[in-house]
Design brief:
The structure holds 2 protein chains of 2 kinds.
Chain A lengths: L4 E3 L2 E4 L5 E6 L6 E7 L5 E8 L2 E4 L8 E4 L6 E5 L8 E8 L8 E2 L3 E5 L1
Parallel strand pairs in A: 2-11
Antiparallel strand pairs in A: 1-3, 3-8, 4-5, 4-9, 5-6, 7-8, 9-10, 9-11
Chain B lengths: L3 E4 L2 E5 L4 E7 L6 E7 L6 E7 L4 E4 L2 E6 L4 E6 L8 E8 L8 E3 L3 E6 L1
Parallel strand pairs in B: 2-11
Antiparallel strand pairs in B: 1-3, 3-8, 4-5, 4-9, 6-7, 7-8, 9-10, 9-11
Classes of the chains: A mainly beta, B mainly beta.
Chain lengths: ~110, ~110
């Protein structure tokens, strides 16, 4: 059973470009969470999604950030017009039942904005 | 707002000694408390968790205790080994249908000296 998959593992973008991060949950999991980790800091919750629904986006910045989890395909975290402060590791996690079970993390996408 | 404080930020022990990491949380509705281990450049891995209806849980060399009245929970690692060296994160969450977010502590870097 494959774990949570994320791609790309490393992403370099220039300021002003768009970044698209993908997350495929574990088989049988239909709940996805995105977290951001700045260097030498803990993980900060961004958004919680189920298929075709955003359940909790209380941690998402108001501008430039969006997330989706379509009926088919991976969950996508999209950052428009990236700035240097967006440089971080972005982890997604999945669980089989939202909010009631363990969250299993993917390997992360390390975004560098130059 | 929701907050989890974790101490110490760094911990160095000799192989075979015990290590204790402590966390406090602010949201009294929190009822799920996982601990994650993160090696350098790797994904956070769930090592143990505890729910609010239990005061203590043990898994081989790892144990977690919870004091809901004081809003404290702790991780105890006995007979530490060099491979226990990593960053450890505590987290607190509310298991409910409309939220699954985890609030993470700032992390503890554990170094086990051979």
């Amino acid at each position: 059973n494959a774990g949570v998959m994320q791609n790309p593992r490393h992403l370099v973008r220039r300021r002003g470009q768009e970044a698209r991060l993908r997350c495929s949950p574990m088989k049988g999991h239909s709940h996805v969470y995105w977290y951001r980790q700045l260097p030498e800091e803990g993980l900060k919750f961004m958004v919680y999604l189920q298929k075709e629904n955003i359940i909790d986006e209380s941690g998402m910045p108001k501008e430039r950030f969006s997330a989706e989890f379509p009926k088919e395909g991976p969950s996508i975290l999209r950052i428009q017009q990236v700035v240097r402060g967006d440089s971080a590791a972005y982890f997604c996690a999945s669980s089989p039942v939202g909010g009631e079970d363990e969250q299993y993390f993917g390997p992360g996408t390390r975004l560098t904005v130059t | 707002g929701e907050n989890v404080e974790q101490h110490p930020s760094t911990l160095s022990v000799q192989e075979g000694d015990s290590a204790v990491i402590k966390c406090t949380y602010s949201d009294s509705a929190s009822n799920y408390f996982p601990w994650y281990k993160q090696e350098l450049g790797k994904r956070p891995q769930l090592i143990i968790d505890i729910r609010s209806n239990v005061g203590e849980k043990k898994d081989q060399r790892i144990a977690v205790t919870l004091n809901k009245t004081a809003k404290h929970f702790s991780l105890h690692i006995t007979e530490t080994q060099p491979e226990d060296s990593a960053v450890y994160f505590c987290a607190a969450g509310v298991t409910a249908s409309n939220t699954g977010k985890l609030i993470f502590g700032q992390g503890t870097t554990l170094q086990v000296k051979p």
